[in-house]
Amino acid sequence: MEIFTEFGYTGLFLSSFLAATILPLSSEVVLSILLLNHLNPVLLVSVATLGNVLGSFVNYAIGIWGSMFIIRKVLRISDHEFSKAKQRFNKYGVFSLFFAWVPVIGDPLTVVAGVLKVRILIFFILVTSGKLIRYIIISYAVLT
Predict the structure, then answer these.
(1) Prediction pTM value
(2) How many separate domains does the chain show?
(3) Which of 3, 65, 73, 134 yields a CA-CA distance of 20 to 30 A from 140?
(4) CB under 8 Å to 105, separation ≥6 — which residues?
């Protein structure tokens, strides 16, 4: 995490992006450290949200154009996780994308959204809303 915090906003963007894709990173830790180092909270939340949402768009694109090999081997989403994500999608519909920020279930949800070809505007609104609210809550908790 230290490497990301050394690069400030750029490091936060990279950690947020990568946390939403292939690496088990915690962008929340990087955000918290930068908040405690008195960087601009509004800008930090914006950068973290942008990076995390763009990472989710990579998952969405892999869902649309990728193969199950890529989903299993590159994203490391097991058949079980993928099946559970599809079940959540079938049960709760596209509104489950609001929870794309939740560890473990979020990445598979965004991939399944691509596989199911969810409308991109709906994907953008729900994923961005959930991730933005999460980063705002984390920032508030750290700063109070």
Answers:
(1) 0.88
(2) 1
(3) 3
(4) 81, 84, 85, 88, 99
